[in-house]
Automatic annotation (TrEMBL):
The keyword Metal-binding applies. It is found in: Cytoplasm. Belongs to the Fur family. It comes from the Bacteria. Keywords: Cytoplasm, DNA-binding, Iron, Metal-binding, Repressor, Transcription, Transcription regulation, Zinc. This is Transcriptional repressor. It comes from Cellulomonas chengniuliangii. CDD domains: Fur_like. The keyword Repressor applies.
Amino acid sequence: MTTATSEQQLRDNGLRVTATRLAALEALAQHPHADADAVLTEVRASLGTVSVQAVYDVLHALTDAGLVRQIEPAGHPARYERRTGDNHHHVVCRSCGAIDDVDCAVGHAPCLIPSSTSGFTVESAEVTFWGLCPDCQH
């Protein structure tokens, strides 16, 4: 993804274009499923001194705008990714915590439609597959 594209996405979603937002988007393009500390490290490598709070604020704003998706595998810190707006899930290694994307195997979101909502208004659903990554299987 180019910087010009990221700038336009920020503007299209009502966000100001800032160096920290652009650096965070670039970090997530290069490192999908990064946690906030990894994004902070990448942003600091790109821009120099940036506060922890600034990166958390940026991740929150990008998530609220739908430019970034936050996932929270049980027992792991929140992770962030640029891949949004499609029907995909995640597979997580129980040993090392590696995460990868898994496309829904059954088509257009049938696995995300509950048989009963018990009166709830369902806004989203997550499916997480757990196992061992290839490196941890040996």
